[in-house]
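Dear colleague,

As promised, here are the two records you asked about, laid out in our usual form so they can be pasted straight into your sheet.

NAME FIELD: protein one
SEQUENCE, THEN STRUCTURE:
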Amino acid sequence: MNAREALGRLRALRVPAVTTADAAAVLAISVEAASHTLRRLGASGLVTGVRKGLWALADTPDPLALAEYVTAPYPSYVSLQSALYLHGLIDQIPAMTYLVSLARSARVRTGIGTYSVHHVRPEFFGGARQDPKTGTRLASPEKALVDFLYLSPSRSRLFAKLPELELPRTFDRPAARRWVAAIPSGRLRTIAGRELDRILAGAGRSTAGPALRAKGTVRTAGPAAR
């Protein structure tokens, strides 16, 4: 079997990435032979090495679609600044892909970009839906915001200041409050609840004047502002 035939079999799986061990099983060859084949494909630009033993199969790999592969065997979903941007709540393009996960917090540099992984307790993990086309698990706007508030007291400076927000009128305030209530730590629940109240109050006031740019202030907009 030549390298292109191997690539065809792997892409027929219709998954964004494979491990070397998975490729060996699909191609019915040894792990060593699969590693050699994938390296040849990588040298030709037909696959992309993500990290050791993990290869993206698409011509142009999507970092979002590969998020769960980066944290495997632990689940994760795209949230925080990345989800806020994708939902149109902030204008600033994140420099990294932000993930919430049951894996340990870490910054993971890969061949397709950097992932900022942030651990949360299992009771607070959730609030994401899977895109049927890409497989990306993306937090809802409400959960992405509450995830940010949950992590804001951490030592990381990544969440020290919330970017200017533009909340659409479709933003589900009760859902956001329910996620705050689900925070396991009483201290963090109080901090996040206080900040959410301040943000939502600011959204109500900002309709009469120009947007403010301090932490926790927002512009309101109709659904078209997404």
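NAME FIELD: protein two
SEQUENCE, THEN STRUCTURE:
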Amino acid sequence: MAIAIVKENIESQDLTPKEIVQQLDRFIIGQAAAKRAVAVALRMRWRRSHLPKEARDEITPKNLILKGPTGVGKTEIARRLAKLVGAPFVKVEATKYTEVGYVGRDVESMIRDLVEVAVRMVRERKNAEVAQKASAAVERQIVNAVVFAKKKQAVDVPEDLLRQQTIEEYRAGKLDNFTIEIDIVDRPPAMDGMAGGMPPGMDMQIGIDIGNIFGAIMPKRSRKRTMSVAQAREILIADESERLVDKDSLAAEAVSLAEQNGIIFIDEIDKIGSAGGGSGPEVSREGVQRDILPIVEGCTVQTKYGAIKTDYILFIAAGAFHISRIQDLIPELQGRFPIRVDLNSLTKDDFYKILTVPENALTRQYTDLLRVDNVNLKFEDEALKMLAELAEQENETAENLGARRLHNIMEVLLEDVSFKASNKSPVKDVVINKKFVSDNMANLIKKTDLRKYVL
């Protein structure tokens, strides 16, 4: 059943590679080669789902390595890709892991994190399925509590009439701020793994959720709490939804979803590359690679929701590779990432498009944010081109931060406007033109110009 649900999820996102690229273009500028590569990889997963089981089990994803400087869209491409198809997605940093889990995290934790994401996704869907039933049950509890509280003040009103009035007021949202006393189930704190005295990273090896074990043995206790109707509704709906959803079914579907649709983005993989030979840190970095290898090759990892096979998870690795090279990774790991794509540094034309084209462009974000404080921003085209050129120059003469450089520039540009803005002031129009940019970015422009003459 779980496999069928996963296949249904893939079917619902029947996007061709061209359509996937078009969707990515809405948020990410440039990097056509990387978009094409991930689009094809995703479509291959869809094609695999249509094969007979015997053939499907023999086909594993073609993992990718994205090579390029920071801030050019590596992470965003992978994140948007997962969002397009509703796939569980986690981003991990290779430098957070240490050999066999000592001091840092053990590599299997990335799989457990993926399963946790899948559990949240499946739980949200199942909660939506039982929402109507849960809401009806919660309405009865809250109405009873409100009627009980009102009866103390309206002793002469018949209870049936009082109840009917309360139901109508509750459904109209008029009771959200009404204070009631209601029974709330106490939730014991979750304790994953085994407590005390275990090396970092080893505490999750067993995959046992002690909180759930004790929760099943010990009877649930509740206590009276005083709160508003709105607060009570939120807590009670969560409790009622949890009661209505079958936990075994949820766990099985989540594991299958992570297993068949999961995407893991391993960032900074270049930082664990080693030229070979040597000792100390060199050996440790190679040890992390060898720990990651079986995860990418395909193995079974125990989680508190059940065992998961990693064979069909799509792995996307990324790194700047300024100091090390892809060839510095151990050959076995290189072989598990057959698709390699170079991402380009951003130009002033790219920066201009980043400021104007995406649906979540920085200019739109700042316009929406400052409108809350009665400031209407208007960006002129020449000003945006000037900002794009400044971003390119800063990346060339200082550290190359990619698109993140625009965040720094926009903060400096609008710092004074943001500081003075207030919703208590009348509406104010602010035009961002070339003069505004020159006046507010004078120090940065001067610093950038001086760097050109530094040898």
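A couple of things worth noting about protein two: Confidence is low (pLDDT under 50) at residues 1-12, 191-208. The chain has three domains: 2-121+254-342, 125-252, 348-449.

Best,
R.
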